[in-house]
Amino acid sequence: MDTLSAIAEPNRRKIIQLLAQRGNLTASEIAGHFQSSGPAVSQHLQVLKEAKAVFVTRQAQRRIYALNPEPLHELRDWLFDLTNQWEQRLDKLDSMLSKEKKDSNSNKSQSRKGKKNGSKS
Amino acid sequence: MAQNHEAQFERILDAPKERVWKAWTDPKQVANWWGPDNVTIPECEMDVRVGGTIYIVMLAGEAMGPFKGTRWPMKGQFTKVEPLSRLTYTARAWTEGQGPETQIDQITDVTFEDQKGKTKVTIKITITNADTAPKAALQGMSYGFNQQLEKLAKFVATKH
């Protein structure tokens, strides 16, 4: 599964956010934040691991999970670009339309000189 | 495993639907606002009817540094055209002069709703080659680095 698909699932997204906020955590610490069973959580961890969104280190008996920043940064940048592009586009469209409106309003008030107040919308 | 991914953007524009529709369907007007910062639109073709072509080329300007002069075409077809209320197209975007690894396939669905004389525009983008698209986008164009993970999560959703 690609990284984007892996982290799109809400529970897995929550795991990613936990790791982002708290740093490294053991499987049982992660499971402590979920209602669902331990096996369900470890299945999610397994998917995240296979998608290279997290990596695991062993300390004695414990498995410690940490974020794997590389693929997450790639995704972040990609989504940022997509978002950024559309936000900028809409900003430009917005200012094009409002400039036009301002121009036509000032024309109106010019031509309606003498009348009481141009229409306000 | 390839899955679809969606991102959605909304904006309320201070103009009636008729005006906003025109801004989206007249190629001259589209060319005015389509390019993000530091990007111009040297070519823009909008044959707004079902099966008609949409073809827009973005050209990186001076301020894009190493990308300057790069052309990013997008070509596709309109699949839904409901005057004043909906515009849907499927398209492929790529980096000119580079291979298929730069391709991004997407469905873009734009709806227009009247809100007391203003217009709410909703843009829903479905990326249909999500397994390769993030890499493609990175190779073609990357000029932003500050998004937080929470925001990332907000924009990521699996299409079931």
List the helices and strands and how they pair.
The complex is a heterodimer of chains A (121) and B (160).
Chain A: H1 3-8, H2 10-22, E1 25-26, H3 27-31, H4 38-50, E2 54-59, E3 62-67, H5 69-111
Antiparallel strand pairs in A: 1-3, 2-3
Chain B: E1 5-13, H1 17-25, H2 27-33, E2 39-46, E3 53-60, E4 71-82, E5 86-93, E6 104-115, E7 118-127, H3 133-140, H4 149-155
Antiparallel strand pairs in B: 1-7, 2-3, 3-4, 4-5, 5-6, 6-7
Walk me through this protein's architecture.
- The complex is a heterodimer of chains A (121) and B (160).
- With 121 residues, chain A is mainly alpha-helical.
- Chain A contains five helices and three strands; from the N terminus they run H-H-E-H-H-E-E-H.
- In chain A, strands 1-3-2 form a three-stranded antiparallel sheet.
- With 160 residues, chain B is α+β, with helices and mostly antiparallel strands.
- The radius of gyration of chain B is 16 Å and the shape is globular.
- The relative contact order of chain B is 0.21.
- The chains are: A mainly alpha (121), B alpha+beta (160).
- Chains A and B meet through helix 1, helix 2 and helix 5 of A and strand 1, helix 1, helix 2, strand 7 and helix 3 of B.
List keywords for this structure.
heterodimer, A: 121 residues, mainly alpha, three-stranded antiparallel sheet, 3 strands, 66% helix, 12% strand, disordered C terminus, B: 160 residues, alpha+beta, seven-stranded antiparallel sheet, 4 helices, 19% helix
